[in-house]
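Lab notebook: predicted structure, single chain.

Context: the supervisor wants predicted structures on file for every construct in the current expression panel, including those that have not yet been purified. This is the next one on the list. No modifications to the sequence; it matches the entry in the shared construct table.
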Amino acid sequence: MFIYSSQVKHRNMDGNIGVRLTKSKVPGVMITQYVEEIPEGKSHPDFTRKPIALTIQEGKFGVFKAIVYGEPTPKVTWNRANGKIDNPEKFQTKYDEATGEHTLEIPKVCGEDADTYKCFATNEYGKAVCPIQLNVIEVGFKKTRELAKSKEEQGALKPGSFRTMLKKRGEVHEQKPLESEEKVWEILMSADKKDYEHICAEYGITNFRGMLTKLAEMKREREVEQAQFIEHISSLKHIEVNADENATFEIDMDLKDASSRIFLYKDGIMVPYTVEMEEEMKHQLKRVGKKFIFTIKNLDPADAGLYSVDVEGVNVFSTDFKIPPVNFAVKIQEVKAEERQDAIFQCVLTAPMTEINWMGKSLPIESNDKFEITVSEDKLIHKLLVKDCQPLDAGIYAAVAGIHSCNAWLVVEVDKNPANKGKKIARKTTQAGGGDLDLEKIAKEQAEKHKKDMEEMMAEAKIKAAERGVTDAAAQAEKEAADAAAKAALPLTVNLVNPPDPGVHFTLGLSDVTAIVGDTAELVCKLSKENVDGVWYLNGDEIEPDDVLTMSKDGFFQSLKICKISEDYAGKYKFEADGRKTEAMIVVEDPPRFDPEELKKFTVPNIIKKGQKATFKIPFVGRDPMKIQWYHEGEELSDDTNIKIEHGEGYSQLTLNKLQRKDTGEIKFKLKNEFGTVEAFAKIIVIDKPTPPMGPLEIIEASQNAIEVKWRSPKDDGGCKILNYILERQQIGRNTWKKLGPIGPEAHYKDSDVDHGRRYCYKIRADTEMGTSELMETEDVQAGTKAYAGPPSAPKVVSAFKDCITLTWNPPSNTGGTNILGYNMEKRKKGSNLWSPVNLADDKIQEKEFGVKDVIEGMEYEFRVAAINNSGAGEFGTPSEFVFARDPKIRPRFTDQKVKSFMVVQAGNSARFNMNFEASPWPDVTWMKDGMPLSKRVTISNAEGASQLLIPSSERSDTGIYTIMVKNIVGQETFSIEIRVTDEPKPPGPVEVDENVPGTVTVSWSPSPDEKRDDRLHYLVSKRDSSKRTWHTVADHIFNNKFTACNIMPGREYHFRVYAKNDMGSSQPSESPKWEITGKRESKTCNLERPPKFLVPLKMHTAPQGYECYMSCAVRGDPTPHVTWTRNNISLNTNTNYLISNTCGVCSMLILRVGPKDTGEYKIIAENPLGRAECSTKLTVSDDWKLK
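Prediction complete. Output recorded below exactly as produced.
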């Protein structure tokens, strides 16, 4: 346990007052700190390795070991609770400076030495104390007496805590004694849920439900502790043995503080470890991001145990490392298989194992379509079959058993038959591997040897057990044999010739049951034998079967069934058979419940007329006392004038009187007792006559022939569907109302019986099955009156040109009761009193926007609009502002969205380029070539909003940057296009091939005649060797006259072709003479190391803006030099805008789109351990054509 900080002061053994207790990194160690603040560089004592408890036989040699640390170095002392250790013949304390171990030795342990011992480590800043227990096993008469006494004490113990609930089997036939409770809980805390069952079976835990409850509580406590230091923990991978015979386990955790201390323990003892991949220690920790990987190297049986990882004293993970004592009698051997043949690996173990781990290329292998894993019946022979071998399957395969492994190669021989090249090879039916060894014979010999060794060890163990006076010799012999087998690396499964019968025992105990009154409850347990007779008890009394209680047995299972259980059957049940028993509780609960049929009736909606009453009654069952509550729309109800609640035995009733429409809603009935809560819901609907229809009245038509109106439905229909609307009409000036009768459920009516010019008023009522609503009276509506529309808004100018002025306006707010049919517009010149119509009388303007074209350029106008409805044209509205009939001032702008800035034309063909623009007033259009006026060979054609450049028959001299400038009084705009007049290039001159470096050849050629006239001309090199019939490109975009080809093989003939390329295409090739290296040159031992040297330097470059630029050079050096490109002394190697490559000493760089920022000095630096070389050039971007 950890000792946490406390402010309680106490006096230590030296008389000093301890300021406070503090926690230790090692569980079970108590630290007392003497001062509040410890100076920097100093520390109180603590234990790196604490002494461990001993259980030792009388007369043996006993020793306690401890390692401590602290600054200054602590003083270590020992004492015991009952007695002194000052006898030097009996107790000896020692210190080993090499290992730093303090030891307390007891040469010959006797019964009186059994006691609690303490180890103290003290310096001026504090004290650390660790208690340890020494247990002595006495032999002879004394041991027999103590055993009998111990059994009596154990029989007197009664279960008083949860730990006694976890019953553990102690039968003598079990080979492995039960582990300590603390270890079992640590294993369960970090185990997967799927492993709980076999862990409980292994350690004898039968109360599985109790274990889960306690485990959940412990996990919550640990999560709270972990939250102090850890943000998140996941991906817990338990310990596994690898093919390299190392064991690893992994944790993914996110530490709140990266500097938090991490401790590793084995069976509670701190284990030192190294970080990362240092080789000097057995235990290692490697950290990759949030993943922590612990490794145990050089495995041996002593490495088995419980490994735990703590962060700042808080446990985060535990894993149990079990090492089965097994080795390989026959290891797997190398297998050579042909392509598409099956291959088999096989091995023989020294002891039976159900399965071993197979690995291929360091990855685990499981049985699937590719691999098949088989195990012999005696579990000694293990095989791995690799199906349908492919070249990718070749590699190292390994078998791992316990802490031992073996590995071998799988060699897959590729089919070299030329006839099968490019074809799918057929699957072979033969099998590779297996060897000539008789595995069955070896396995049989190993089994016999194993059996013989076990019999000898059993006999020896029985003799020793008899000498010690153990009553049950067979059980002790089995334990001795298991211990001996572990030491001899043999399996733990002991097969006694005549094993003792353990008798009947429970493999599945009874579990607690919670049942509801009236339901059926059943208790079931499972025994180790079939058809065993047993007795059932309830609260200590034997149970006799009756109509309610029935007992049955089915093979291994015993069951007790209770039909229609009542509270009389609650209590503790016990089943006893052959002296073994198991117990469980049946808890009978009686929560509130409803009968399903009655509940179904209760939930049917209750429809009640206004003023009547509604009754809700529902029966129920359940144990008293019971809390009963009624709710309406979430508000609890109580007895009132119109509310009455009655409770009877097994029922409750709610009565609501004089219901109103507003009482419509949800009724809830709630029951609650000590066992639970239940609710039932019902719906109440109170129906009434509807409320009046709602206005305002919408007039759809009010003409001389008809009045058509619409209105809105009632706000509340009273809970019923509207059947009809009832209308009455009154002519204004008369006292009588005319019934128009029910018109149906639609809130819409068209009255055709009207007189032109008369005004009418309407009364409207809604009618349902509950009655007729109050009336809604409408305003007056006139039939066919000449109601003119009001004036529209003042027109607004949208655009104004010399030949058209466009205006828009808003419709009038008063339409005169009818729809707007159109508009009239008038115009007036500034300074004139005369308004003239814009549109003809019979040609109404339909839209609310109109373009007036009957205008005189330069004149100033104002406009006004009148609306037209069924009665005719209304009054004209407010005039617009004065506006000139002239084009607006527009800055020149090119309207083409996608226009090319580069054009290639073959010499002799015409070159044509069109450019569209807009500008006002009309602009001046000017064309220039390279900033100079055009020659007479170029024709320019200008039209409204467009300009065309035409070169009828282009020549190379016409190449250049052509710029159009459009300019008016508002501004100007320019655009440039590069027109390149070229022709198919002429082929380069003779091609020569030379070998400068072994394995490479340098191809050089004379330049093409067009190279000086075309700065975009470059070269392409292709190659063909005697082993192939086709040519393939080896280099492109070469701007010099030399290229170095790599990977030239001796004994082959090579041909090279060089093409000149430009924007029009490629020239005819110039071909090199045949090149051949007749044979291997005589190898000579020589030192080829040399400093870097540039064989082909960089070339000066001038590139047009927006085009790509390719630079290349050749460098040699041994070792291969590291190449760095720079621009203006800034490295470009990591700049993604530059494509840099280095192939066999040919260094190149490609700039995809050259811009002004790329201008500058480019330098390439080659470095190796023998020296450094530099080569530089300049790149100029041609942008002189731009207008300043």
